[in-house]
Design a protein that fits this description.
Layout lengths: L8 E4 L2 E4 L7 H15 L6 H8 L10 H12 L1 E4 L6 H21 L6 H11 L6 H7 L9 E5 L4 H17 L2 E9 L3 H13 L4 E6 L3 E7 L8 H15 L5 E9 L4 E8 L17 H13 L4 E3 L5 E3 L2 E3 L3 E5 L4 E8 L4 H14 L4 E6 L15 E4 L5 H13 L1
Parallel strand pairs: 14-15, 15-16
Antiparallel strand pairs: 1-2, 3-4, 5-7, 5-8, 6-7, 8-9, 10-13, 11-12, 13-14
Length: about 400
């Protein structure tokens, strides 16, 4: 993620216009490749050593913002460790006390202070098999500049430039007060992916179905809240890569920008060409759900299973079931959602909402593997507990029961 000082934007009246880069530009690809080469050779080196080498590519002033931003994104892909043979904080305490005593003794006896001797004596006192050089190296190993790279998650130069464009947009959204997103003409699977991403990131959001097979997402921004703005802002920014998988979307956000927090407008759409750095799981089906679907179709001839049901508009918002069961003889429809892992409180709240707003039309399948004490949960009709995988016969049984209520 880019820090505020690294964000490159220009202003057009009350609009914020990010200075996106062209990922196919030969000069920028060369710059990105040079910075990547530094990090590809960084394993075993400290942050300070890497920063020193990067000075050749990062000039002072505004011209240095782009290469510094690329370097920051590479640094985020590194895994660091504190390389010390003894806890640095404890070692500093012992060394400083020993050095103070040695200096006092040297002053009293009018002798020169021998730093090497202090470190050597300290190693004997602490029963350490460390040389004075190793003690010296470990003294400040916990400082950020001394942390050493143990791994780097590599990527191509073009991927790094694409990631930079997304990071610019994310950094702007960290200062958002309000955001509206419209998503058009996507598959039910893609809409479900978006709805679940909203839930996963715990965003304050309302979702409305709008004309033309589209949905409107209205989200509170981090600066509209009274607390936890950093954490919430990060979650909002992490939602953006999921949105970028959509072909047609329109995002409009109110931003408080600069030290004076002036109100600005930020606009992003599919036409901007930003590419998501996240894997696309929009059409991914978990193995457990696929196993259930295959088994259902093989064993249950009287019901039709739809594995890609359209999201349902309820009075309190949109519900995204996993399956729709249709009984052709009667036209009855029951929607099924499977909870392999979910917090108990969320399940209970969700269950009571469905019981109010979609009575007789749902079955919740909840895994016994993750359930809490039954005395803590309050469920009624429409819930099926399963052990390993949901059984089609049992799901149909519960579906037929709720239809009779």
């Amino acid at each position: 993620m880019l820090t505020g000082k690294l964000v490159r934007v220009r202003h057009a009246k009350n609009k914020l216009l990010p200075l996106y880069v062209q990922p196919t530009d030969a000069g920028l690809l060369g710059l990105a490749e040079q910075i990547l080469l530094v990090y590809r050779c960084a394993v075993g080196r400290s942050r300070g050593e890497i920063d020193e080498e990067l000075k050749d590519f990062i000039p002072e002033g505004p011209r240095g913002l782009l290469p510094a931003g690329l370097a920051k994104l590479c640094e985020d892909r590194c895994e660091f460790e504190i390389a010390a043979d003894f806890p640095p904080e404890q070692l500093r305490d012992a060394v400083f006390q020993a050095a103070a005593r040695a200096r006092l003794q040297a002053a009293t006896q009018k002798q020169l202070f021998d730093r090497h001797a202090v470190l050597h004596d300290l190693a004997s006192q602490l029963s350490l098999t460390l040389t004075p050089e190793q003690i010296d190296h470990s003294l400040f190993a916990d400082l950020k500049a001394e942390q050493r790279v143990v791994a780097f998650e590599d990527l191509t130069a073009e991927q790094l430039l694409n990631r930079y464009n997304v990071a610019l947009a994310q950094a702007i959204l960290l200062r958002c007060t309000h955001m509206e997103v419209r998503v058009y003409a996507e598959t039910p699977a893609r809409f479900r992916q978006l709805f679940r991403a909203v839930k996963f990131h715990r965003l304050i959001c309302t979702i409305e179905e709008t004309p033309g097979n589209s949905y409107k997402f209205t989200l509170d921004g981090p600066l509209s809240l009274f607390s936890s703005t950093n954490k919430y802002g990060l979650q909002l920014a992490l939602f953006l890569p999921t949105l970028l998988h959509c072909k047609a979307f329109d995002l409009r956000a109110n931003i408080r920008w600069g030290s004076e927090r002036k109100e600005k407008l930020f606009h992003l759409s599919g036409l901007d060409g930003l590419k998501s750095p996240a894997p696309d799981f929009g059409v991914y089906t978990p193995p457990e759900l696929q196993l259930f679907a295959d088994s259902f179709r093989a064993k249950i001839p009287d019901w039709i299973l739809d594995t890609d049901p359209h999201p349902m508009a309820l009075p309190s918002g949109i519900w995204v079931p996993d399956f729709k069961l249709t009984h052709p003889a009667t036209g009855r429809e029951v929607f099924v959602e499977v909870f392999g892992f979910w917090r108990k409180g969320d399940i209970e709240t969700h269950y009571h909402k469905l019981r109010r707003e979609a009575p007789g039309r749902f079955v919740l399948c909840i895994s016994d593997q993750y359930r809490a004490d039954d005395n803590d949960a309050t469920f009624g009709p429409g819930v099926y507990r399963y052990k390993r995988n949901p059984l089609p016969d049992e799901v149909v049984r519960v579906a037929e029961l709720v239809q009779k209520l």
